[in-house]
Amino acid sequence: MKVKILFVWCFLLFITISFAQKAVSITDSIAITKVLFQQQKDWNNADIDSFMEGYLKTEALVFSGAGGPIYGWENTLARYKKSYSDPIKMGKLQFDVLNLLSISDAIVQMQGKYYLTREIGDSFGYFTLLWIKKEGQWKILSDHTSASK
């Protein structure tokens, strides 16, 4: 009987937490998308250093792509510089935001799509970003990007 009660309690807790998410405020939505589209502009100017300003500068940062997870801001920067070593490899980037979901007052999840137009072959795919608000600024703490082409 105790096991059943514990199971029901855990199930109800899970359901409550799952549906406790709320819409992102307009102010936070604007602030987050402003950072994202600044990254797009920086990328299109072939400026990876400025592009990286959208990420939280911490060892807790994780970027997950086709090559597996990369941990830390410096390692993520090095990965970008190695993979996109010149403007031809970088191409022109366009982001589309598909969804924003507030996890808490300081954490937002974003789903989106990217398009990379390049002379060496276009690419597109999807991303999920976990944004965290630190010292009044929104920064990316986790980036999972997968190419569809």
Count of domain modules: 1
SSE run: HHHEEHHEEEE
Distance between the termini: 53 Å
Beta strand count = 6
Q: Would you tell me the structural class of the helices and strands?
A: alpha+beta
Spatial extent as radius of gyration: 18 Å
CATH architecture: Roll
CATH topology label: Nuclear Transport Factor 2, Chain: A
Helix residue percentage: 25-40%
Spatial order of strands in the largest sheet: 2-1-6-5-4-3
Number of helices: 5
The overall pLDDT, averaged over residues, is 89
**Shape category:** globular
Task: Provide the β-strand percentage band.
Answer: 35-45%
Low-pLDDT parts are 6-19
Q: How many strands, which pairing sense, and closed or not: the largest β-sheet?
A: 6 strands, mixed
Instruction: Indicate the CATH class.
Output: Alpha Beta
